[in-house]
Each structure stands twice: as C-alpha cells, then as structure tokens.
Amino acid sequence: MKKKLLSLAKAYQLLEPGPVVLVTTSRNGKANIMTMTWQTMIDFNPPIIGCVMSDQNYSFNILRETQECVLNIPSVLLIDTVVGVGNTTGAKIDKFSRFGLTQIPSTCVNVPRIGECFAHIECKVIDMSMAATYNMFVLQGCKAWITESKRRQRTLHHCGNGVFVVDGEVIHTDSKKK
Amino acid sequence: MKKKLLSLAKAYQLLEPGPVVLVTTSRNGKANIMTMTWQTMIDFNPPIIGCVMSDQNYSFNILRETQECVLNIPSVLLIDTVVGVGNTTGAKIDKFSRFGLTQIPSTCVNVPRIGECFAHIECKVIDMSMAATYNMFVLQGCKAWITESKRRQRTLHHCGNGVFVVDGEVIHTDSKKK
Prior knowledge:
Two copies of one chain form a homodimer.
Chain A: E1 3-6, H1 12-15, E2 21-27, E3 30-36, E4 39-43, E5 48-52, H2 58-66, E6 68-73, H3 79-86, H4 95-98, E7 103-104, E8 113-114, E9 119-127, H5 131-134, E10 136-147, E11 156-160, E12 163-172
Antiparallel strand pairs in A: 1-10, 2-3, 2-6, 4-5, 5-10, 6-9, 7-8, 9-10, 11-12
C-alpha cells in the first residue's frame, strides 16, 4: 500500500475518532508490535498524544528504553492481525514474521512501520512523568503518513472483551470547532 | 430514558471505543455542558480516565474549581445537540435550556446528568498535575449508569472539522484480552 506524507497538523484526525492502533517499537534491531486502544490526543500541532499501556506488556520497557515508536492505524481488513497481535507477546515470538507483516523504514525514528496499515504516526517520547503512576507515555509525532488510495478506510474500535465496532455512516456537520 | 446502575468494572466499555462525550459540570447551582473528544481510559477498576480540554473552554475552570463532572454518552440521535453544545459557550447561554436537555441528579457528585444520554459516568478529579502542562484532568469514576433499553446505542466518533463517523458493524472475536 503506497503512502504519502500527511501534514502533522492533520495527524490528530487519525486518532481523534478512537481507533485501535498497532504500536511498533524496536530494540537492538528486533521489532515488536502491540495492540493499543487507550490513547488520546493532547495537542494538535505538533501532535501530542497520551498513550497508556500495561507495564506487563513486552513493549512497555522497550518504549521506556528507546523513547521511540510508530502508531500504525489498521483498517477492518486487519482484524485477525489486531486480535492475533493482542493475544501474543513479543517476548516469545517475532510478530512481523508470525502475522506476515511487512517492515517499512521510518524517517524520524529507528522503528519500522507496518506496511499493511493505511496510516502511521512516527513518534518520540517527550514526557515520562506519568509512566510510573499511570503507565502513560506522552508522545510527539515527528512524521505522519497516509495511504494514497482514495478508498475510505474503515477503522476498528474496541468495546472490550474482544468485541469491536467498525466505522459506519459518515455525517458532515457545520461544526465550527476543529 | 430509564437508566440502571452499571458496574464500575464495566465503565471502561463505554469509553474505550472512543465516542464523543458530553461533559457536565456545575458551579453555584448553574450547570454547564461541553462536547469532548480527547479522553482515554487509564485504568479499569476503579475506572481512571484522562481527559483533555482546552483551557479556553468555559468548563475548564469550573472543573478545576469544583473537581467534579459527569461524562454523558450521547447516541447518534443527539448529533445536533453534540454540534450545538460544541459551537456555543456556557459563559453566554444556559445549554440545558437552549438545547432542551433534562437535568437528572447524580448520586456521588453534585453535577446533573443529561437525561437524553444513554449512559453516564459520575467522576471526581483525582490528579491535576497534568492540568497546567497538558490541560489534562485525571478522573476517577464513582458511579456509572446505562439505559435499561436493550436497543443497541450507536455512538459518534469525531474525525475533525465537524465530520463524524457513526458505529457500524459489530464483530465478536476470541480475543483473550480485556
């Protein structure tokens, strides 16, 4: 899937609707992936993101040590990957290999993007002060990408216990707010 | 719309999918409402929530002073209310009156719930340490409610610039993760 650069000022539009995200990290040349659903935008431009991951996750310590990750946005077509990645640990398997995913180099972090995802935000950790209390990392996006395809990409939203809701109808309103 | 108590352990299921939320606050007996889309779960039980609102919002100082709010979840049926509430300020109008909404008393906070919303989480602010830097309040849910209706409630997700996507297809998987 060919990607083009997305303005950092528009990166919030990827996360504000609340999609499931696949987070990539890398340490000593070994890349890992985790499924994440607890994140929020904090500011628009540069995009600041707060993300929460259990300190029991293999990715937690990698992110703490390397201070870099990529937020990859999967469409509904990747639901089996989303569930498979969420049910396994990078401590035991190579998830790129297990789930047949393609590593694409990033440009501002030393972490691969997932080729099969339709959008990416390359991120650096800028604040760890909430990591000990809340397992929250504050990230700043340094580069964003989106597919060149004009087809609408429907994302997944996790409702708990393995139940997902997929994007449905789109409604355009005359809201004055960003 | 009749509501029943929802276990606090299940409150995360209301927010994890990333819906638009209507936040109620109250000061000196005057209630206000704002539309919010930047929030994330931080912990399951008790439910801890991180929410970000602009310090330009009328509700920001009320929440800072009173330390209480209710997160009300609107279904797609309330889209005009969601947009109207987002485009106006409580500094100038009474939003309950303007948008014909019903105040329902809460039980653990001194802030009304919005009767027309299908679910609510009554919350107290437990941490303001990120309020100055990131406009983030950390909330703890003290009571949760959900409609008694068995009908599926489709929520709204904001994609930016007044574009919303509505819940579509539901997919049940065998994910082992909460």
